[in-house]
Amino acid sequence: MTDIRADIAGQTGPGDASFGDYVQLLKPRVMSLVVFTALVGLIVAPVHLHPVEALAAIIFIALGAGASGALNMWWDADIDRVMRRTAKRPVPSGAVEPGEALGLGASLSVLSVVMLWLATNALAAGLLAFTIFFYAVIYTMWLKRSTPQNIVIGGAAGAFPPMVGWVAATGSISIEAVLMFLLIFMWTPPHFWALALFMNSDYEKAKVPMLTVTHGRRSTRNHILVYTLLLAPVALIAAFTSIGGPIYFAVSLVLNLLFVIGAFRLWMRREERAEADKYAAEKRFFALSLAYLFLHFAAFAVEATPWAHALSTYVGWETASWL
Fold first, then answer.
1. Which of 200, 281, 282, 322 would suit a FRET pair with 42, their CA atoms being 20 to 30 Å apart?
2. How many domains does the chain have?
3. Residue 3: is its pLDDT beyond 80?
4. Residue 293 is part of which domain span?
5. Considering the domain boundaries, does residue 222 fall inside one?
6. Are 119 and 187 within one domain?
7. Exposed / middle / buried, residue 102 (Cβ in 10 Å: 0-12, 13-18, 19+)
8. What is the pTM of this model?
9. Same structural domain, 140 and 26
10. Closest CA to 136 of 50, 73, 185
11. DSSP letter string, 15-73
């Protein structure tokens, strides 16, 4: 009778997973960012894959990202259950059994790496395998629970996709691929620390050593400003490579100016004021950080179009490119 009532109410019992639960297990929002940046890596590469090969590469990179998400949810079920932001995820909510999440994550890991190898090349597959390992083992199983630098070092996992896309097309690593990697790597700490400023209670309850928990919000604001200042030159330098140009430079200049101003405002904030307005400025900065990364990579993609190349030639941008 209880099961019937649960079905009527549209609810599921432990282990009674729907298709949507398995989709959520793959962290679709994170996967969308991976797919987008990896696609940009493919688009801006000097060597272009056949459209079918490119589509296959993106699908297998996405599956690799989904595998990482499933493994992360399997391992983190205990702390996800405590945190308000993650309590409704499939494993902590009981919709998906931990063993199912582990099996799905492991299977998709092997499938994505092998198929990317067959579709493109061994180096791209190796990078994808390392990315999955780094996120699932180095970050999730070790760094996340052991050091306040978890986001700094662990950010490498989210920074690899555009490099994987580039290598899938070219079979090699270049300065452009490294700069795309560094752009995401340096962006990750201020992005996640801004989130931690207004979600700190979750991390405290879960005993995750986020910087806000171990060093306090004041120190976190200092770190956000420092990393934002270090991020700006990395982003702007990319304008003077083969993947940059005047459009990217203009977009990056405006975005970095806004980002630095936003970080400076967070640095100036008193905790009493932040608590009074429920961390409104911190939430705006977090939203800005999402737009920051998306628009940078969108600008990279625009620079790969013929009309953008014509504009670069018209203004003589090639003479300014030195990397």
1. 322
2. 2
3. no
4. 174-323
5. yes
6. no
7. middle
8. 0.90
9. yes
10. 73
11. T---HHHHHHHT-HHHHHHHHHHHHHHHHHSSS---HHHHHHHHHHHHHHHHHHHHHHH
In-domain check, residue 149: yes
pLDDT at res. 5: 31
d(CA 255, CA 81) in angstroms, rounded, equals 36
216 sits in the region (left: phi over 0; alpha: psi -120 to 50; else beta) called left
User: What CATH number has the domain bearing residue 120?
Assistant: 1.10.357.140
Beta carbons within 10 angstroms of residue 224's beta carbon: 27
- Residue 296 to residues 39, 150, 168, 251, Cα–Cα distance (Å): 13, 24, 21, 7
Quickly tell me which residue has 């990056």 as its tokens.
252
Per-residue pLDDT, 85: 83
pLDDT averaged over the chain? 91
CA distances, 309 to each of 86, 253, 278, 297, 321 (Å): 44, 19, 45, 16, 13
How much is the average pLDDT of 219-243? Answer: 96
Select from 156, 173, 190 the last residue of a domain: 173
Contact 308, 251 (CB under 8 A): no
Calculate the alpha carbon distances from 136 to 133, 142, 303 in Å.
5, 9, 34
* Token pair for 80: 């996800």
Complete DSSP assignment for 85-139: TTTTSTTTTTSS-HHHHHHHHHHHHHHHHHHHHHHS-HHHHHHHHHHHHIIIIII
How much is the pLDDT for 10?
Answer: 40
Q: 286 and 151 share a domain?
A: no
Question: pLDDT value at position 173?
Answer: 95
**Residue 318 reports pLDDT greater than 80:** no
pLDDT of 7 > 50? The answer is no
**DSSP class of 279:** S
Q: Are residues 178 and 133 in the same domain?
A: no
Question: Cα(62)–Cα(64) distance, rounded to whole angstroms?
Answer: 5
